[in-house]
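Example 3.2
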Amino acid sequence: MPAGGAGKEWGVSVRTRRHLAGRAVVPALLVVLALVGQPAIAEAVPPAPPNPSDDDLKSGQTHVDTTAARVGQLANRVAQADAALVALESQVELKHEQANKALIDQQAADTAAAAATRAADNTRAEANAAAAQIVEAHRDLDQFAAASFRQGSTVGSLSAFLGSRSPKDLLARAELLDAVGGAQLHAVENMRRTRVEAANKDSQTRAALAAAQTAKQAAADAKTALEGAYRVAIDTETAQSAKSKALRDYKADLERQLYEAQNAVAGLRGQRKRYEEWRAERDREQAAAAAAAAAAAAVRAVAAERSAPVTGAKSRLVAVEVRSVINRAMSQLGVRYSWGGGNAEGPTVGVRDGGVADRYGDYHKVGFDCSGLMIYVFAHTLGYALPHYSGFQYNSGHKVPLAQKQPGDMLFWGTNGNIHHVALYIGGEQMIEAPYSGAAVRIAPVRYAEIMPYAVRVL
């Protein structure tokens, strides 16, 4: 570490001082590991939780599937019953409206019958009046005929003339006689016409009254029939409603059974998950122990390589710088990945990417991305900051064939020549990387899928 670097570190933030303190601890730990020659002993893993058998899970899931199928079938029956109930409700509404119409029709028929009865009564009164007129006309005619029969056809006229006292009276009696004769003749004609009209009105009245009574009876019969149909519809709807309720109750009970069965399977799956988490934790601890051993081996290899006789002060300086770079990378193990995070001073808040990183909240969490970690680990040895883009970092140093890689070299991965990841090689086929959103800085075996054919050496 150059002397100027120490003075710079003295004035950095508390967060950076914590990283610097970590860098001081890690080399000491590595020295111990190198001296002892054994990986750090992992903390004791708790005993394994229950692990349900595959048969238990399969049996529980079969029960869930069977119950779910029954619920599905019953749901179809409930839907059909509900549809039938809706149709019956529509029928009930129709029957109710038809019964209402029949009631109105009956009321109209009653009104028409009452009007026909009143008309018959009026006609009967008119007929009676006409009959009285006929009787009066008959009496007048009979009197006229009797007088004419006794006195002859001119008697009445002669008597009228003989009884007159003056010419004026004679003229008046002649006019009166003429009027009386005309009235008698008119009365005869009226009698005949009245008889015809009375007969016609009586016939029409009887017909109207009979039609009104028929309509009244038909309306009453229709009302009775439709009210009966309405009651039948109501009873059918009530029965269907009870059937639908019974089906829904049965479906609710099956759903409760399904819920219990699903909970039972979920409990078994939860046990299986806890067991798998326990096993994964055990595997991680074993992997961590192996990684620690590999890291210790890498440090020993670097130490052995750098402790070999070298020529010139430059080679010894490179050995010190490589150790410093690896130590700085080791000090960041466990720091979360944050897309766009990291600079020469340490981890920083990430930035938005509009995708995966945003879903993990990288834009408001402190950490490193892959190229940001490289900026940090080389910042105090190169004297300048690497660009914050792995594609540019690939062209930032001397390319060496991958088979000749050494601790302190950068390894790159790409697709069709487009660089998308970078990591620091620490020896023993191990590397340190900031892998992806949701993960943290870690030691991992070198992955050769999509790895670029050259390592980049900047020291």
